Amino acid sequence: MKTELLNPNDIERAAGIIRSGGLVGIPTETVYGLGANGLNPMAVRNIFQAKGRPQDNPLILHIPDPSWLEIYCQDIPEEAWRLAKRFWPGPLTMILKCKRRPPEELKNSPVCSLTHEGPYIIPDVVTAGLDTVGMRCPAHSMCRAIIQAAGVPVAAPSGNTSGRPSPTSAWHMLEDMDGKIDAILDGGDCQVGVESTIVDLTCQPPLLLRPGGVPLEELQAALGKIELDPAVTRQLEKGEKPRAPGMKYRHYAPKAPVVVVKGSPVRSAEYILEHLSDPRWDGVICFNEFANWYPGYLVELLGGALDTWEQARRLFRALRAMDETGVKRIWAQCPGDAGMGLAVNNRLNKAAGFHIVEV
Ligand code: AMP
Ligand code: MG
To answer: Phi, psi at residue 301, to the nearest 5°?
Structure first.
C-alpha cells in the first residue's frame, strides 16, 4: 500500500478515507494518532494490525464536540460536563460508561450506523470488550475538522509501532507507518508532545490512569480529590492489573536501553558525567543548561530544567533522535513530579523499563 502524505487542504480527502474504512494518520495537539471509523470493526481491527498493538489494549474515541458524549456514553456524571467545559477541546480523555445498543430511532443515524454485534453502541474491538470507553475532544483544529467531516467518532491510538516512542510529527509517523496505512495528514509538530491525561470517572473518587497534557494539579482544582492508579508511578508487580490496560506494556522505548537519573538537575548531570564511558556508545538526554557538559557525546536537549512543558514537547523527539545514532546506552535527566513533570517522568520511566537511579 502506498501511504499518501496529505496537507492541511486535504481535510475532505482524509475524512473520506476514514468514512470508507481506511486508516489515516491525524495530527492532534498531543501526538499523531492512527485514526479509523470507530463504528467500523474491520477498520478498527486494521489499526491493531498496523501498529502490532495487543488486542486487549482499548482505543480512545475522538469526537468533534462534547455534545457527542451523549450519543456514545450513559450515566454521564456531572464531573464529566465540568471537565469538558474546562478542558475540551484539549488533551484530556475521560473514561465513561459505554452506552448500550441504542433505541430503534437512532439506529440508522449516520453517527451510529450499527453494523456490529455486541451489547454496546461502540464495537467491542474499540473498547477491548470493557463496559467503558475513553472519550476525547482534541484541540487541534484540523483533527476536529476531519472528525466533523467524517461524521463518525474516530478511534485513534498513538500513531507509532507498538512499543516505540509516539510520533510528534508527520515525518515520525511516516517512519513507523509508511506502506501500512492509507494516508497521513501533515498538521505540523505537536504542541503538547505527550499523550492525553486519562481520568476514570466511573469510580469515586476519580482515578488518574495516565498523566498527560492536562497536569494533575489542574484536574484536582476542577474535581477535588483524585486517586492515582499505581501504574502511573511504579512498575507493577507480577499479576497486578492496571485500570488502563495499556499501562502494563513496555512503551515509548528507543532501541538502546535507557537509564533515568533523578535528583537535582546539577547532581543528576554530574552523575551522568561520572558514568559515561565511551563517546561512540553513550548518548545523553539532558536539560538545556547542561548542553556543554558532554563534549564529544551525542546529546539531545530536553528543554530548560524547570520548563516541564518544553520537556514534554521534546521528549519523544529526543528518544527517536537517539535511535538514528546507533548509541548503545542512553542516560536521561528527569524533572520532578510537579505540573507536566509527572507525565515526563511516566514516559521516561517506561522508556527505561523503570531503570531509575536516584542521586
Ligand atoms: P494510546 O491511544 O496509544 O495513547 O492508548 C490509549 C490508552 O488509553 C491505553 O493506555 C489504553 O489502555 C487506555 N484506555 C482506552 N480505553 C480505556 C478504557 N475504557 N478504560 C481504561 N483505559 C482505557
Ligand atoms: Mg500509544
So the answer is: -95, 135
pLDDT digits 0-9 by tens, 78-101: 999 999 999 999 999 999 999 998
The C-alpha atoms of residue 52 and residue 155 are separated, in whole angstroms, by 16
Instruction: Quote the ligand 1 centre to 176 CA distance (angstroms).
Output: 20
Query: Is the beta carbon of 127 within 6 A of some atom in ligand 1?
Result: yes
The cell for 178 is 509508511
CB 359 within 8 A of CB 267: yes
Give per-residue pLDDT as tens, 235-283. 888 888 888 888 877 788 888 999 999 999 999 999 999 999 999 999 9
In the predicted structure, residue 18 carries a pLDDT above the cut 90: yes
Task: Kindly tell me the sign of the dihedral angle through the C-alpha atoms of 7, 53, 39, 144.
Answer: negative
Distance 357 CA to ligand 1 centre (A): 29
Q: Is the CB of 211 under 6 A from ligand 1?
A: no
Which pTM was predicted? 0.96
CA distances from 221 to 93, 224, 228, 244, 337 (A): 17, 6, 15, 23, 17
Pocket of ligand 1 contains residue 192 by CB under 6 Å: no
Ligand 1 centroid, distance to 237 Cα (angstroms): 20
Q: What is the DSSP string of 46-76?
A: HHHHHHT--TTS--EEE-SSGGGHHHHEES-
Residue of 29, 56, 57, 72 to test ligand 1 pocket, by largest number of atoms within 8 Å of CB:
57
Beta carbon of 158 within 6 Å of any ligand 1 atom: yes
**Of 164, 187, 190, 189, nearest to 177 (Cα)?**
164
